[in-house]
Amino acid sequence: RQYATDQRKQTTLEKELEQAKEKQKDDILQRCFREWRQIIKHDVEVRELRKALAKEREALAVSNHKLEKLDAMTLQLDKDNKALRSNAVRMATTMSLLSRTLAKYNQFLMESKQKDEQAAQELGFARAP
Predict the structure, then answer these.
(1) Where is this region: Disordered (predicted)?
(2) Phi, psi (5° rounding) for residue 16?
(3) Whole-angstrom Cα distance, residue 87 to residue 127?
(4) 127: which DSSP letter?
(5) Model pLDDT, residue 2
């Protein structure tokens, strides 16, 4: 009888051990699945971050290209501005020369007119109305 009781106890213990092993396997599997889902979630996040980073890089490249264009335009505008200033100085110099020349010419005309009038008076010619 003791043998039968011991056999039942052993069978019960073996069943409990088997159940414990199954439960442990299930627990391990569940933990593995949770970790696997977490890994997949992180993988998706990494992909999304890489896509966002690629978009940011593209936007940055476009911005850099625009800045390079603006730099080139600024350099050209600086050159044009320098040329315009140089032309303005030349024009001012030319205008000054023209103004002095015109003043001298007007003075010459006035002096010539005065000399002509004086000569006409000396010769006795009357001035025409």
Answers:
(1) 1-20
(2) -65, -40
(3) 48
(4) P
(5) 82
